[in-house]
Design goal:
The complex is a heterodimer of chains A (261) and B (219). Chain A is α/β, with parallel strands linked by helices. Chain A contains 9 helices and 12 strands. Chain B is an all-alpha fold and 219 residues long. The chains are: A alpha/beta (261), B mainly alpha (219). At the A-B interface, α2 and α3 of A face α5 and α6 of B. The site of adenosine-5'-diphosphate has 10 residues of chain A, from α1.
């Protein structure tokens, strides 16, 4: 039994007076593939953003790989994390966004090599070689010289995945990475996710409305509502035999909206 | 019959001074614009306050007074500037104050998702600014920078008041020596306009080059 790679302990987060997360706790094991599902506004994105340090927590603790994310241990005391601590912790985590967030002024390959060159001091040639391998893996090697604006949504998202992988994070966060895509482009991105799922030992957290994919992808599914984990379990349990009324209602709605399960 | 060729020579010399002043003033303005524009966005209150004070002061007082102050008042505190130095200083600081707001606005126009992408790939604050935000913001700044440079060119005429021999000064010399007003002033009118056109063209072609690929059409 190994230690969890992510340990969330009673975290709370408010936007103004609106409390999105209220004492949430959860754990993720190394190499685990987790699917986070739930209605819009239930706080799934907020959780990923907090893990990526794009959003601060109001209270509680998060440990990544045994180390505090938002606190530094100094002489037995817990101090708020400074930029250096955050930068070091961010090395372990990568994120792919719903709207890709590529750098529009950089070519595909430069999008992928920028961070390894700047943050890891990788020589350009080595960074480009590695980038080409990753672009090949996501099926974008032939577009290495293209600019993002020339790509379809599915292509952009595959480049964004390669960009995140280039830093070799141990944890990858995917926030509705197919939601902004035309239906015919969803498959190509899911195929890439599937390869990552089956061929790497990264820990992966996937927020998605693609229930069929979540079922195949995940070791464990968490159903969120109003910032709380209402139900969690193996994909088969959650999708075939949900116990909570709210989970049942949500899945019914999703199926009615045309998503396959 | 007036010997016009000699007088045109004078005006050409004036044109060189005006060009020199415009170039040097623009370089100083650009430096000040980035310093103060980035300063306005600093994490540190003192830096923000300093940048704001500079911008408000130089936008709120006239370029004439600034120039006279640089040339006639600074010597009292032991700093004597040549007319050219005083001109570059006043023009650069004045136009730089306007440019600073352009820099700040352009940086703030870059979407939050770009900053977040930078954090997600673990770039530091300065790395994000240097490699992701500024290159995109520069494109937003360019057209207004072009306008500012033309404003600076036009404002160089004020340095004739501290007897720097720029275009306007030389036109006045020619006028007083020949008694003819129309020829020298029409000539410099055309030259000023020509210089402004060159700046416009320059900025526009720079803009085209930098925008290449961003719209997904040209590469
Ligand atoms: N920056 C923000 N400012 C104010 N409210 C926010 C912000 N981000 C998220 N919220 C609110 O927090 C709640 C949870 O949002 P989110 O985490 O995006 O949910 P989900 O991803 O499950 O749809 C929503 O009600 C949303 O409106
Ligand atoms: Mg969301």
């Amino acid at each position: 039994m190994s230690a969890p790679i992510i340990k969330i302990d009673g975290i709370s987060k408010s936007f103004g007076t609106f409390k999105v997360l209220d004492g949430l706790s959860m754990q993720v094991m190394p190499r685990e593939k987790l699917a986070l599902i739930g209605p819009s506004g239930s706080g799934k994105t907020t959780i990923l953003r907090i893990l990526m340090t794009l959003e601060r927590i109001d209270s509680g603790h998060i440990q990544i790989d045994g180390e505090q994310l938002y606190h530094m241990e100094r002489n037995g005391q817990l101090l708020p994390a400074d930029e250096r601590h955050l930068a070091r912790m961010r090395q372990k985590i990568g994120m792919v966004f719903q709207l890709f967030n590529l750098f529009p002024h950089k070519s595909v390959i430069d999008n992928v090599t920028l961070a390894p060159i700047l943050t890891k001091g990788m020589p350009r040639a080595a960074a480009e070689k590695r980038a080409m391998e990753l672009l090949d893996m996501v099926g974008m090697a032939d577009k290495a010289k293209a600019m993002p604006a020339q790509l379809s949504g599915g292509q952009k998202q595959r480049v964004a995945i390669a960009r995140a992988l280039a830093l070799q994070p141990r944890i990858m966060l995917f926030d509705e990475v197919t939601s902004a895509l035309d239906p015919e482009l969803v498959e190509e991105v899911l195929n890439v996710l599937w390869r990552l799922c089956s061929e790497t030992d990264m820990t992966m957290l996937l927020v998605t409305h693609e229930m069929g994919f979540a079922h195949d992808f995940a070791d464990r599914v968490l159903f969120f509502d109003r910032g709380k984990i209402v139900e969690e379990g193996k994909p088969d349990e959650i999708f075939r035999n949900p116990k909570q009324e709210r989970t049942q209602g949500f899945l019914k709605k999703i199926i009615a909206a045309g998503h396959r399960v | 019959m007036t010997q016009w060729s000699g007088y045109f020579g004078l005006i050409l010399q004036g044109a060189l001074v005006t060009i020199e002043l415009t170039l040097m003033g623009s370089v100083l303005a650009l430096i000040m614009a980035f310093l103060a524009g980035l300063g306005r966005l600093s994490r540190f209150f003192a830096v923000r306050a300093l940048a704001t004070a500079y911008i408000e002061f130089f936008r709120g007082t006239s370029i004439f007074v600034q120039l006279f102050w640089a040339y006639f008042v600074l010597p009292f505190i032991g700093i004597s500037l040549t007319p050219l130095q005083a001109g570059v200083l006043a023009l650069g600081l004045n136009v730089g104050a306007y440019g600073a707001e352009v820099v700040r606005g352009a940086i703030q126009s870059i979407g939050r998702e770009q900053y977040e992408a930078c954090i997600a790939v673990n770039l530091g604050r300065w790395q994000s600014m240097r490699h992701v935000i500024l290159p995109q913001a520069l494109l937003v700044m360019l057209p207004t920078f072009g306008n500012n440079a033309i404003e600076l060119l036009k404002a160089t005429a004020v340095v004739s008041l501290i007897s720097l021999t720029d275009l306007t000064f030389q036109a006045q010399v020619v006028r007083s020596q020949t008694g003819n007003t129309m020829v020298p002033f029409t000539t410099i009118l055309v030259i000023y306009f020509g210089l402004a056109l060159i700046i416009s063209w320059g900025v526009r072609s720079l803009e085209r080059r930098m925008a290449r690929g961003l719209d997904g059409v040209r590469v």
